[in-house]
Write a structure and sequence with these properties.
By secondary structure, the protein is mainly alpha-helical. It has one helix spanning about 5-50. The protein is about 85% helix and about 0% strand.
Length: about 50
């Protein structure tokens, strides 16, 4: 059988897809910041010591 897809179903699917993409980006950013947190902290600490 052929099922007709209405406009609200397509908009709902698009909204879910955007939400999944945003969630994936957030997870990647959190992982990256956790991985780099030591290096970033050391860099700022070195800069602070150099300015003193």
């Amino acid at each position: 059988m052929i099922r007709h897809i209405n406009k609200t179903e397509i908009q709902g699917q698009t909204l879910v897809e955007y939400a999944l993409i945003i969630a994936l980006i957030a997870v990647v950013l959190i992982v990256a910041l956790n991985a780099l947190s030591g290096g970033i902290g050391n860099t700022f600490e070195a800069a602070t010591e150099a300015l003193e």
